[in-house]
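sorry for the late reply, my laptop died twice this morning and i had to redo everyting from scratch. anyway the thing you sent over, i finally got around to it. pasting the sequence first so we're on the same page, its 221 residues, then the predicted structure underneath. double check i copied it right bc i was rushing
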Amino acid sequence: GVLGSAACMDKEVAHTLAAAAGVRVPRSVTLYKGEEGSPLERAAGLLYPLFVKPANAGSSYGITRVERADELTAAVELAFAFDSKAVVEEEIPGFEVGCAVVGRGADLLLGEVDEVELASGFFDYEEKYTLRTSALHVPARLSPADAARVKSAAAAVYRALGCAGFARVDLFFTPEGRIVFNEVNTIPGFTEHSRFPGMLRAAGYGFSQILTRILEEAMRA
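ok and here's the structure:
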């Protein structure tokens, strides 16, 4: 729907709603093109490394990982090339996990949690579409209890952001076992080799079953 699509597209709004639902989010500041005050001043309270992101964009376009203060201004300028609003957030240690969700309200179907293993850097555009140096683990290398916590957080975010139909909820799992929200992809990759159907396949659902369930959801809307 309009509300869920808009809320998930805007990283600041998505994080605000996820935090209100009780799910941890990265510490961050929001910057607007043309506002008073330099990025260095606005982000002074954050700890490096940081990620600078256009608030409304996908596939990691315009995202920069910033390790030092002297890199911040250029990163913000790049983000502003994609959007008039940018989010600067602290890097979350650990690794990315995801959960496929289908349905609405109390009637949700959850896939198995997957895990993104990176050789270096972050899950940028090239790695998302080539997996040249990264790997996906489905199910994720988590205990059953931790996987259940990730699924619970994914369901909470999905509902809080007004999602219905289907989406992939991406989170971070820290070395201390904390679950931190990253983003929701409302139109996840949907080839037979993509993450979304892979998570549901690991939960016992074939590709045709997934499509049938999503079409049934659309008919019920």
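The two ends are 9 Å apart (CA to CA).
thats about all i looked at so far, will dig more tmrw
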